[in-house]
């Protein structure tokens, strides 16, 4: 891996390189995606089935697009019992973590006849997108469905592209059933996002769409935003390891590669105060690349978006981490909890030598759907909050409104909104 000393120019160059991975730079695909979205909006099922045959190589009809109970039973027969056991354990952890995020409605009453509050209501119907093809991620199924279930969403619909045999991967199906999806449709790509956003003859319109996907899915979510809510437009995965000379170079190298294997566009960065560790990690990475699968993907990821950055001290290292605002941040320092308190921008923070990123991906409980491309500066991980809406509640009695009505009228008149002022005045016009 390339080793670079931290300075203003090097960080500016790196941030510029990382931004090239952003979905905001996918303009070349937008015209094609928008055409698909508009076609599905206009022609519904007919367009969805045409695109499914074109892109996924399988013919669907209104009778075969919905996964049947028989198909789910068949999936259970094909899934390894050990994987099913792990899925069930992971669901317990994910559910327990997200239960703590639940919010309740609240109301505050005052003696003068005022009641103010906030009413929390789950969304009625949500759509979860799950990638298919070569990449099968039952963990993403759990991370998107469980918080919706905890939030109280009445209907959770999953869409995922079918294989050429017209079936959904059994691991994906079993994860969906265990997590609580009510319906699964064999549709993927931009056409699936459009179907969820606008509804078709067989696929109902939803209130929100969540879940990861490729460039076409990301741009389709961007195109339908406003007709429905979305979670985010996620970019490629990324990891930043912040380490000093107490870190184990073999652990650091392994963790960097755990993200580099996702995608040629994935980013893996080490920020360290130790030149010795930097060299050791680079050597360990080279060693792992000779033994692991997906070597070509990892090498391209590291060549394009992999860095080992040497900071003069821990403060500079923390500043770099906050500037990059990585999706995953691992802290391997002598006092990792102290460093954690100084981190302001990160999707998920992993503390210590044994809290590696895959722990969060699969099992610990916190959500692994995280902000990417520096958006951890202002976005949060997927949570129960993403599946609720809040309504303000206001009640004033006549006795409460009377002493303040002229204040409100004054405010409205200053804004030249006389109908606003009149709405208050008519309630006291006989006095």
UniProtKB/TrEMBL annotation:
Residues bound to NAD(+): 129, 191, 214
Q: What is the lineage of its organism?
A: Bacteria, Bacillati, Bacillota, Clostridia, Lachnospirales
Q: Where is the active site?
A: 327-328
Q: What is its EC number?
A: 1.1.1.23
UniProt source species = Anaerostipes caccae (strain DSM 14662 / CCUG 47493 / JCM 13470 / NCIMB 13811 / L1-92)
What CDD domains does this protein's entry cite? Histidinol_dh (cd06572)
Cofactor(s), by name = Zn(2+)
Q: Which residues bind Zn(2+)?
A: 259, 262, 361, 420
Q: What is this protein called?
A: Histidinol dehydrogenase
Report which reactions are catalysed by this protein: L-histidinol + 2 NAD(+) + H2O = L-histidine + 2 NADH + 3 H(+)
Would you tell me the Gene Ontology cellular component terms?
cytosol
InterPro entries on file: Ald_DH/histidinol_DH, Histidinol_DH_CS, Histidinol_DH_monofunct, Hstdl_DH
Q: Gene3D superfamilies of this UniProt entry? A: 1.20.5.1300, Nitrogenase molybdenum iron protein domain
The record's function comment reads: Catalyzes the sequential NAD-dependent oxidations of L-histidinol to L-histidinaldehyde and then to L-histidine.
Q: What detail does the entry give on cofactor binding? A: Binds 1 zinc ion per subunit.
Q: Which residues form the signal peptide?
A: none
Task: Write the record's keywords in alphabetical order, separated by commas.
Answer: Amino-acid biosynthesis, Histidine biosynthesis, Metal-binding, NAD, Oxidoreductase, Zinc
The family line of this record is: Belongs to the histidinol dehydrogenase family.
Q: Name one GO biological process term.
A: L-histidine biosynthetic process
Top EC class of this enzyme: oxidoreductase
Q: Which SUPFAM superfamilies does its entry note? A: ALDH-like
Q: Which domain of life is it from?
A: Bacteria
Alphabetically, the GO molecular function entries are:
histidinol dehydrogenase activity; NAD binding; zinc ion binding
């Amino acid at each position: 891996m390339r080793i670079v000393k931290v300075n203003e120019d090097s960080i500016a160059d790196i941030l510029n390189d990382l931004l090239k991975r952003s979905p905001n730079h996918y303009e070349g695909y937008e015209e094609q995606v928008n055409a698909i979205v508009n076609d599905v909006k206009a022609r519904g099922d007919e367009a969805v089935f045409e695109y499914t045959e074109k892109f996924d190589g399988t013919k669907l009809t209104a009778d075969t697009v919905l996964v049947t109970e028989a198909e789910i039973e068949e999936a259970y027969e094909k899934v390894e019992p050990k994987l099913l056991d792990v899925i069930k354990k992971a669901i317990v952890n994910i559910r327990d973590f997200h239960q703590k995020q639940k919010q309740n409605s609240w109301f505050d009453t005052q003696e003068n006849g005022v009641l103010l509050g906030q009413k929390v209501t789950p969304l009625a119907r949500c759509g979860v997108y799950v990638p298919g093809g070569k990449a099968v991620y039952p963990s993403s199924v759990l991370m998107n469905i469980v918080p919706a279930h905890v939030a109280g969403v009445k209907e959770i619909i999953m869409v995922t592209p079918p294989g050429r045999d017209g079936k959904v991967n059994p691991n994906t199906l079993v994860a969906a059933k265990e997590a609580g999806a009510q319906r699964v449709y064999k549709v993927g790509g931009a056409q699936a996002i459009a179907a969820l956003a606008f509804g078709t003859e067989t696929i109902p319109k939803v209130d929100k769409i969540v879940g990861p996907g490729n460039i076409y899915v990301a741009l389709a979510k961007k195109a339908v935003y406003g007709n429905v809510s979305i979670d985010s437009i996620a970019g490629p995965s990324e990891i930043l390891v912040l380490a000093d000379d107490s870190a184990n170079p073999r652990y650091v190298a392994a963790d960097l590669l755990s993200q580099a294997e996702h995608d040629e566009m994935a980013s893996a960065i080490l920020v360290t105060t130790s030149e010795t560790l930097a060299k050791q990690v680079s050597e360990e990475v080279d060693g792992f690349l000779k033994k692991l699968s997906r070597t070509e993907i990892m090498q391209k990821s590291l060549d394009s978006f992999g860095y080992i950055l040497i900071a003069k001290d821990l403060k500079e290292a923390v500043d770099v981490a906050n500037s990059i605002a990585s999706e995953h941040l691992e802290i391997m320092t002598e006092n990792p909890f102290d460093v954690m308190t100084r981190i302001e921008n990160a999707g998920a923070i992993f503390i210590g030598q044994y809290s590696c990123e895959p722990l969060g991906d699969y099992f610990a409980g916190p959500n692994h759907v995280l902000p990417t491309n520096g958006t951890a500066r202002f976005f949060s991980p997927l949570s129960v909050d993403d599946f609720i809406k809040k309504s303000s509640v206001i009640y004033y009695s006549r006795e409460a409104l009377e002493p303040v009505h002229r204040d409100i009228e004054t405010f409205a008149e200053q804004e030249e909104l006389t109908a606003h002022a009149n709405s208050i005045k008519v309630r006291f016009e006989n006095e």
